[in-house]
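Dear colleagues,

I hope this message finds you well. In preparation for our joint manuscript, I am sending the L-gulonate 3-dehydrogenase (Penicillium salamii) sequence together with its predicted structure, so that both groups work from identical material. I would be grateful if you could confirm receipt.
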Amino acid sequence: MATEYPHKIALLGLGTIGLSMLAMHLRRPDTSITVYDPRPDYESQIRTVLPGLLDSPPNESNIVDHLIATNRLKLATSLPEAINEATIIQEQSPEITTSKQVLWKEISKLTGPETHLWSSSSGIAASAQAATCETGHKVAERLLVAHPFNPPHLMPLVEVVPGPETQPERVEFVKQYFRDIPGPATDSSSGAGDQTMSHYRPVTLHKEVPGFVGNRLAFALLREACHLVGEGVVSAQDLDSIVTASLGPRWAGSGVFESYHAGGGEGGIDAFLQKLSPTIQDVWGDLGQIDIAGEQKWRDVVVQQTEEAYGPYTPQTRKKKEEMLRDVVEMQKKKWGELS
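The corresponding structure tokens are as follows:
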């Protein structure tokens, strides 16, 4: 008799984020995942990419077949088949508002009122996605954004962004779901990683804003980085060195406010802002105002220098970067555990 899993997840969209999310969901022993993507090659993508994302023994060459045989993983050939028995539906469709609206409108006609509806969108609000759905299907009350950072099977952050009509219990459910997911293995042969504290850290946003918070911070830094490189102040590679040799290590242990709170000494962040206010204001007033769709000089410089510095992004490069991410996150968990 097949094992019954309490969480039946329909994962819609199997691109880079979707495949990483699949690996993440599979860490919970109480989930079964049905996947669907309209691309004709999505099964071959799963078989090629998924084994490398899983915390499985190196000799587990038939891991995808094993997951299918044990009903942990099902490959659907249509949207109705994928969501038929789902308790959670999570979409990773293209970042186009109208496309997501069409998808949720179709889903709303095929699911009951208890199904949890999650979007992995990196910037489109739940209220906008649900705007064209009929009110009787209560999509707006059930839909929220659960935005992971790439790659989700490693990165701890999940931005939970409810819409104005999202029920509070739906928010609490998704937060607890992610808190209960075990972290990745630190060694592919040693099982799960450090479980002394939760790996995933869902953070609730209190207002819907374009891009949410993580990407707004990242894109603000990207804009100034592009401005500085475009103006010839620093090279793209040296700017990266500045980040990885200063801001990166500091932010791995302390966020923006905690860092500057410490920088103010006994007076904390208030003292820091008072002491540095002239310099801070000079910098704020001089930050670059560039248009990504406008004049292309800065863009050409950034692209050329970045490509010259790093070349193509290969699977080997990705693997090395993911190993480093694992180490950094496990270090964070260890240190926070000592401080708690």
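For the figure legend, we might mention the following. Confidence is low (pLDDT under 50) at residues 187-195. The chain has two domains: 7-204, 216-339.

With kind regards,
E.M.
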